[in-house]
Write a structure and sequence with these properties.
It contains 3 helices and 15 strands. By secondary structure, the chain is of the alpha+beta class. The chain has one domain (12-291): outer membrane lipoprotein receptor (LolB), chain A (Clam), CATH 2.50.20. The strands form 2 sheets. Strands 6-5-4-3-2-1-15-14-11-10-9-8-7 form a 13-stranded antiparallel β-sheet, covered by helices on one side. Strands 12-13 form a two-stranded antiparallel ribbon. Helix 1 packs parallel to helix 3 (164-171). The radius of gyration is 20 Å and the shape is globular. The termini are far apart. 32% of the residues are buried.
Length: 300
């Protein structure tokens, strides 16, 4: 069957499918950015890690949590399992590298290894001091690098239970002016500080209330409850207590799960390798580098 322009419909559909795939990969990179944390940024981890007492102030909790941020450069290999209501699993795998340029701005590079239909795809994010980041994509079947507009990032991320807003909150869980410390709670038998955020009208949030539980021993967010209208619990994000690992002087969760209670679905993210270093060459984070094979692993 042919369209009015004389082209088979299968040929006409290819650009639309490609655009959809591009958006999925851009959102996947935003998901990967969350794994790195908000700093991209500290030149080194704190020399010592000491959690404040149970009666800590909000400022002390924020300072403690900031010590778990990664070095200014590194490599993460991770997998994403999206599990639907029937129990069917969709698996993705990728590597993300990050560094800072001479202006102290983040550069982030994602390379997809699974599934096979997207393997070899690479996506570069260049942070800007006074504007939205720039996104550049390389698809295996296209020789040139394409620029992707950041305004098209809204919507579910790679078929998972994460929305773009969820990822932003994960990346900066304590960087909000409306955050309040409301008490002490417990998660899986461990004491946690309980923080509350109530988004305002200007936030354009899909949630009416957000509760964040910060583990007192590790200073890591181990649970986030996201409420919708009528104060119904819509989503719950959990970091596995058994998978919080010591890397250098920092505590990092290696497995966390997002559950959508309304849709009865969940998404599991697993960090499979984490290497951190004070510096990676900026030459690995250019549009030209998108055409090259993945560089060697970080040296120790």
């Amino acid at each position: 069957m042919r369209s009015k322009a004389g082209y088979p419909q299968s040929e006409r559909a290819k650009p639309c499918a490609r655009v959809s795939r591009v958006l999925q990969l851009v959102r996947a990179t935003v998901l990967a950015v969350v794994l790195v944390g908000p700093s991209f940024g500290q030149s080194t981890w704190a020399a010592e890690f000491e959690a404040p007492g149970a009666a800590a102030t909000l400022a002390e909790i924020e300072a403690c949590a900031s010590r778990n941020l990664p070095n200014a450069a590194g490599v993460i290999e991770f997998s994403v399992e999206a599990i639907d209501r029937s129990g069917a699993v969709t698996l993705s795998r990728a590597e993300i590298r990050w560094t800072k340029d001479d202006d102290e701005l983040a550069r982030i590079l994602l390379r997809v290894s699974e599934p096979s239909k997207t393997a070899g795809t690479a996506l570069l994010i260049l942070d800007k001091a006074s504007d939205q980041p720039e996104f550049f994509l390389r698809l295996p079947e296209i020789s040139r690098v394409k620029r992707v507009r950041s305004k098209r990032l809204r919507g579910p991320v790679l078929g998972t239970d994460f929305s773009f807003e969820d990822l932003q909150r994960m990346r900066e869980p304590l960087d909000r002016s409306d955050l309040e410390l409301i008490g002490i709670s417990e998660v899986d038998g461990h004491s946690a500080w309980l923080l509350e955020t109530i988004p305002g009208e200007d936030d354009s949030s899909e949630y009416t209330r957000v509760l964040t539980y910060i583990d007192q021993q590790h200073c890591v967010p181990v649970q986030v409850d996201l409420f919708e209208r009528d104060d119904r619990l819509r989503k719950r994000l959990r970091a596995s207590q058994n998978e919080i690992r010591r890397v250098g002087t920092a505590n990092l969760p290696y497995v966390f799960t997002m559950e959508d209670l309304r849709r009865e679905t969940r998404t599991i993210i697993r960090i499979e390798r984490f290497d951190s270093t004070p510096h990676l060459p900026v030459e690995q984070f250019t549009k030209r580098a998108l055409q090259d094979p993945a560089p060697a692993a970080v040296a120790h």
